[in-house]
Each structure stands twice: as structure tokens, then as C-alpha cells.
Design goal:
mainly beta, about 5% helix, globular, disordered N terminus
Length: about 280
């Protein structure tokens, strides 16, 4: 079977709060929205200079897709100085890391450590291809490659139906489950009738995040709120789109239906509770 090695790569500069205050809708979306992640037999990447965070997606259809090394990384191979987190949001698939095959079902996660030289992505069925959602951050140490299933996640239930934010948080690639350098990833599932995520909103100067929204029903959408607590902006999100959240920005959303989102974080620490909450009545 032939291996496909196409990739698309985009870099985006970091933006300050003062810049964002003056952005119109189109500029805001071009700066922070990642509107397309999955194209058949291609790996798509967006690099933000907030913590040099890479957000990507790969959907193998015709055959295995290799993890190529973008020229701008100036590396011999992709994970020479990086770590990688993967969550499958499509059909069943496999990830082959340095010859070791790992089966990944829907909503299962895989961590691949620094120093892994070869990574390939495979779908079990081309008619129901896997969709591997990818996050990557710079790494200073090597930790073992490890799969985390739904059953192995650290699960927390938060919110209530009265405040329309009853949700289940699945901590997948976090330091309470497995060791990483700085990457953390998890998945939050909203219950039927709930639409708000991450409310009360918060910031954390020591970390940035990327949100990936999926399981949004046809004809529905999510309004993602960002910006400083007293200077907020919004971006309307469609299914399987991601948004970059700077360290100085809130990151919250409300949908016209319930939905699921994946959060990925990087920065100075691995403390999940390191948040500066913004009282709801003080948001502007």
C-alpha cells in the first residue's frame, strides 16, 4: 500500500489585546479561527506563535498518511524536539509510531513522546475514515508513547441543567493520567439541554489553549467568546472547527444545541486548576 505524504502548513503571529480590540469580524476570524482541519489524505497544520502550539488534523482515505516535517520546524523529523497528542474524532483507525501499531477508536487518545521518528495514520475503513485531531508542543524530555481510552480518563462532572452547563470533563492526556512535558488535552461533553461550556469564564497567564468543537448537529452552531474579560469578542463556530485562545483571553462558548469540544493547553505549568476566574456579572 502506498503512503501519502501531502501536508499543508500555516503560521500565525501572536496578537496583543490592544490589536484584538480593533479587529473586525474577518480579521478576528483570520487570526484565531481554524476553519478546516480534515482533508482526505492530507495533514493540515496551523502554528500559532502563542507557545509555538501546533493544531492539526489528518484523515487517511486512500492509504496511510505519514507525519511529515514542515520546513519551518528546522528539524530532522517532526518529533525531534516536540511531543504530540492525538484524539480520534472519526471512524476506527490506527497510528503506527516507530513500527508499533496502536488502535484508536472514536474519542480515544494517544500521546507520542519526543524522539519518535516515524508516525503514520491509517483508517480501518475508507468509507468511514478516521479523523485524527492533532496537537503538538515543544518538548524538553522524552516520555513513553501511551494510549488513553475513555475508561482510563479522569472524569469530572460539572455544572447543572439550571445554569445550562451540565457537562462531563474527560481528562485524557493530562499529568494526573500520564507524564507529558507541557501538552495537556481533554474532552468536554455537554449534556442535552446544556449549551454553556467553561462558565464562569477564566484566563490563565501561564497557559494558552486551543478549542476544537465537534458533534455540533447539522444546522446548529457554537458562539465562542474570547478577549479580555472587560473587552470580549465572539466567533461563530461550525462543526469540526478550532479556535486559538491566547493566555490573556477568556475561552467560553454557548451553542444553539449541546455539543462536544476538545481542549488542548500548553505553557509554564501542568496545573489544571491554575485559573483566574472572571465573575459573570463583570464580563463585558
Amino acid at each position: 500500500m502506498n503512503t501519502t505524504t501531502n501536508h499543508l502548513f500555516e503560521s500565525r503571529y501572536a496578537s496583543s489585546p490592544d490589536e484584538v480590540k480593533h479587529m473586525d469580524t474577518d480579521t478576528l476570524r483570520r487570526s484565531f479561527l481554524i476553519d478546516k482541519l480534515f482533508t482526505a489524505d492530507q495533514t493540515r497544520w496551523v502554528l500559532t506563535f502563542f507557545d509555538r502550539y501546533l493544531t492539526g488534523g489528518v484523515m487517511p482515505v486512500a492509504g496511510p498518511v505519514s507525519l511529515e516535517t514542515p520546513e519551518s520546524l528546522k528539524a530532522s523529523y517532526f518529533l525531534e524536539r516536540r511531543e504530540l497528542g492525538i484524539i480520534n474524532v472519526g471512524g476506527a483507525g490506527q497510528v503506527i509510531a516507530d513500527g508499533k501499531t496502536v488502535e484508536l477508536a472514536y474519542k480515544e487518545a494517544l500521546y507520542i513522546g519526543k524522539g519518535t521518528q516515524s508516525v503514520q495514520f491509517v483508517s480501518a475503513d475508507a468509507n468511514a475514515p478516521a479523523k485524527f485531531y492533532l496537537n503538538s508542543t515543544p518538548a524538553h524530555a522524552t516520555y513513553p508513547t501511551r494510549k488513553v481510552s475513555r475508561e482510563q480518563a479522569e472524569i469530572v462532572d460539572l455544572g447543572s441543567t439550571e445554569t445550562a452547563n451540565h457537562r462531563t470533563i474527560n481528562k485524557l492526556l493530562v499529568n494526573s493520567v500520564l507524564p507529558t512535558c507541557q501538552l495537556q488535552m481533554g474532552m468536554t461533553e455537554l449534556k442535552p439541554g446544556s449549551v454553556w461550556n467553561t462558565m464562569p469564564a477564566h484566563t490563565h497567564d501561564r497557559r494558552m489553549e486551543v478549542y476544537f468543537y465537534f458533534e455540533i448537529p447539522p444546522g446548529q452552531a457554537v458562539c465562542h467568546f474570547m478577549g479580555q474579560p472587560q473587552e470580549t469578542r465572539h466567533i461563530w463556530m461550525q462543526n469540526e472547527q478550532a479556535v486559538i485562545s491566547p493566555n490573556w483571553s477568556i475561552h467560553a462558548g454557548a451553542g444553539t444545541s449541546n455539543y462536544t469540544f476538545i481542549w488542548g493547553m500548553a505553557g509554564e505549568n501542568l496545573d489544571y486548576g491554575d485559573m483566574d476566574f472572571c465573575p459573570i456579572p463583570e464580563l463585558r
